[in-house]
Protein: CDI immunity protein domain-containing protein
Organism: Paenibacillus marchantiophytorum
Amino acid sequence: MNENIQVTDPQRKDWLINQLFLSMGFFDLDTRRPFRMLGEFQYESGINGCGSEEIGCALSAYYTPDEEYYIGEHKVSISYDITNEEVIMEEAEFYPYIEKYSMEYVERNPDQKEEVMECLKNIRKRFKLE
């Protein structure tokens, strides 16, 4: 049984999402770490999950409907293991965060812009936002 606490407070939710992107290297200079997330989320054939020891993110496709932790179709789960908190949202609600943090990453790493934009295009297509 899933013992995580569902986060509903908007400020706490935003803080947890920020921690996820921080852990994935979106605030770093001269790194390709964000491409672990961007690469996994572009295609159905990806692992459909990413994160660090403390915080992780999984798309619906990470689990099958018969598994205990299945979150439904077209959803994203962000789990913070330190406090057992979890945010579950629609892919369409999560995408603006991906875009926001990707653009901040590009500001610090402009040489990665073309590749980031291609990843975002593929993620929008996968999330059926185009």
Notes: The helical segments are 10-23, 34-42, 91-108, 113-126.
